[in-house]
Amino acid sequence: MDNCIFCKIANGEIPSATLYEDEDFRVILDLGPASKGHSLILPKAHAANLMEMPDELAGKAMILAKKMAAKLVDTLGCDGLNVVQNNGESAGQTVHHFHIHLIPRRTDDGVVLGWKPGQLTEEDRDELLKSFH
Ligand code: AMP
Ligand code: ZN
After folding, report:
1. How far apart are CA 38 and CA 31, in angstroms?
2. How far apart are CA 38 and CA 35, in angstroms?
3. pLDDT grade, residue 2 (50/70/90)?
4. Do 7 and 97 touch, CB atoms closer than 8 A?
5. Which residues are tagged catalytic?
6. How far is CA 112 from CA 35, 65, 88, 109, in A?
7. Can you give the pLDDT at residue 64?
8. Burial (0-12, 13-18, 19+ Cβ within 10 Å), 127
9. Which of 28, 54, 85, 86 has a CA positioned 20 to 30 A from the CA of residue 94?
10. Is the separation of the CB atoms in 3 and 38 below 8 Å?
11. Alpha carbon of residue 98 to chain centroid
12. How much of the chain, in percent, has pLDDT values that exceed 70?
């Protein structure tokens, strides 16, 4: 992907604050962090979103998220951490190269993530259960 900024960052063509690198991934500090230590896991191979990720790489990405999350919590001494991964513009994805956000959290840190809970209707439940079985 010639014009993908995260391809260029992941592959080292554009410099970044890199916390970790291996043959498949680069983990960088987000330039617009929600909190101190907000990091992004970028695969070096382009995939637009989770659905386009090869199975093996998707598995490795989650294992790396676990490893980086533990290291961030330990290093920063924070209380918690959100793992966020957006797919598609309607879901808030602005850079269309798969990435996982790691967002360190502290009680009352003022970071806003989330949604207003609705109510699962019987109609939706039945329709969805039918589609998945
Ligand atoms: P998303 O909305 O899930 O697509 O997230 C994109 C994230 O990438 C945002 O949190 C941005 O702050 C971050 N971002 C965009 N460009 C860069 C860049 N050049 N270096 C580091 N982070 C970036
Ligand atoms: Zn890319």
Report:
1. 9
2. 6
3. confident
4. yes
5. 99
6. 10, 21, 20, 9
7. 98
8. exposed
9. 54
10. no
11. 8
12. 100
Q: At 105, is the secondary structure helix, strand, or coil?
A: strand
How far, in Å, are 18, 85, 109, 123 from residue 133 at the CA level?
A: 43, 26, 41, 16
14: its two tokens = 């554009």
Residues with CB under 5 A from ligand 2 (ion): 1, 4, 6-7, 46, 97
Q: Which two tokens stand for residue 47?
A: 């995939």
**Closest approach atom of ligand 1 to CA 14:** 19
Which ligand does the CA of 40 lie closest to? 1
Distance CA 51, CA 47 (A): 8
